[in-house]
Prior knowledge:
The chain is mainly α. 63% of the residues lie in helices and 2% in strands. The chain has helices at 16-36, 40-51, 66-78, 80-90, 102-117, 123-137, 142-157, 162-165; strands at residues 55-56, 59-60. A two-stranded antiparallel sheet has the order 1-2. Helix 3 packs across helix 5 (102-117) and helix 5 (102-117) packs antiparallel against helix 6.
Amino acid sequence: MATVPIQPASEGGLDPSARSAARLAAVQALYQMDVAGTPLDDVIEEFIEHRLGRDIEGVEINAADAAHFEDVVRGVVREQRELDKQVNGALAQGWSLARIDSTLRAILRCGTYEIRRCKDIPVKVVINEYVDVAHAFFEGDEPGVANAVLDRLGREIRHGTGADHGAAGQG
């Protein structure tokens, strides 16, 4: 089985594809923690050592920004109560995180964490990236839910600044 080394963010800027792969892996890791009860340090070690940027069962996995992956996973776990309050407040009336699929819950937590803590990444990039992750897992309404919730939270958390909210850039 051939392996691809984990590539750090490129010099002079961020590698968008490595950040995208890190986001997908973060959602998968949080899902694994939620469903299988895998401890935080174990899941991070497993992903960094055996999954990020590897060829798994003949499927080449894109190189991932391991530092971003670890920051998002640890950050979501550390700030989960606050993240859940914000996400619950942004969901449609009558909905709560407890009623949402585990994967979508992980997507919303990761996206909210990045909107809160990764101020160097434009809100639009965070939203688009996590909507893409949602499309990787769902064919129904879930990507639209992710878009609506993260858009609302982006406006609330970053106060809807036009330059940030609508900016395109690397993620």
